Amino acid sequence: MSSSAAPANPKLHSVSGTGRSHWYPYYAGYSPDFVADLISHLQLDSKSTVLDPWNGSGTTTSICSIKGVPSIGFDINPSMVVVSRARLVAAHTSASLEPLLQKILAVSKAMRRPKLASDPLCSWYTLTTARRLRSVESAIRSILVGGDTSSVVDVSNLSSLAAFYYVLLFRVTRRLAGKSTTNPTWIKVNAEDNRVSLTWEQIEFALSVELNDIGFYDDGSTEDGLQASAIVKVGDSRAQSLKDSSVDAVITSPPYCTRIDYAVATRVELAVLNYSNGSDFESLRRSMLGTTLSEAHSGQSEFRVGSFVSTLLEAIKKHPSKASAGYYYLTYNDYFNKLRRSICELGRVIRKGGSATFVVQDSHYKELHVDLALVVEQLFQDCGFRLEMKWDYPVLRSLRQINSGSRSHSGKWLPTESVLILRK
Ligand SMILES: C[S@@+](CC[C@H](N)C(=O)[O-])C[C@H]1O[C@@H](n2cnc3c(N)ncnc32)[C@H](O)[C@@H]1O
Question: In the structure, what pLDDT confidence band is assigned to residue 108 with cuts at 50, 70 and 90?
């Protein structure tokens, strides 16, 4: 890619298909080609360090690794950390995967586990089936992780091989959990008399089918494709465990302002990890950007007077429509405050002369245009960055349209996805 040519469209055009980027069909993911183009545009190499503070399904860390660029990825959602660690599994392990799956199944079936009265998976499955699926999870842990299998697994230290089997289990539990609603990011909980029951044979068959459907060779990877280290951990974008000025380039896409609840969207996967629907789940939701549950202490606006975001928040607060001054103002204020704190944190960890590449999409609140690209640009300017490049891509099918409840107010308007490069 030449220095001024636009990078590949960041939109991931299809969530189905084979290869690492399709192992876990993440509607929020961006395209591997986009990351590869950015690596070449920014002239990153084996001496650079790339950070993605919202790493999601791990496109940034996976492509950096394939291209020989060391990288670090954080995501606050443990299920996405599992997905991105799995994506780093070495291709030369592929011949061992089927025999290892058979071993996991044999151990699962022989396993004697305390007969718990319930399991997070009971939101979709009968108790007997949930116990079977839990035995598979415990077998993955006893063979590939070790330690105590009664607590929640420490995903930040999971090997990519163990993470790979977790992803197989994610795929099976999601696919067989029952019908989703019209919103494909959301799987409905099943009523008690409608919970899915699976025999051991059905579970074995489903896991084998998923393993067969997984293809290894895409994203430019070869037999020994993964070349650079990638560190992937659970982390909050607002407080990153990194030293000052330790990062050369950030390549990332934050959650958008479209009120898609990422924790709820991965509830099945979190249940596989043994996250109950209780307080842990609630606090995970509250700490995410884009959540519909704002954090209690985020009511105070901390934006520069006269900035686009401060004017927008005032306009939302004064909007005559129902709940604008209450729920909607708090939700937007929460989102922009978390974004501001995350960008400040990036200002701390990016070295002088380093860059931040952000993929963002605009949206509307009623008739008000939420120009997220402008918000990001101004928040970075407040931290001493300048805008170096900006490319716009019209979006033909967006999360806003998927999330049909938010369709009505902006009529025939189509959103724009923007790629911004900001330089410190
Ligand atoms: C748009 S997605 C990133 C997708 C990614 N580029 C990919 O290709 O899969 C944004 C991610 O931010 C994560 N996230 C939300 N709030 C966060 C926070 N406070 N800290 C870190 N990650 C967060 C979500 O879990 C989600 O996976």
Answer: very high
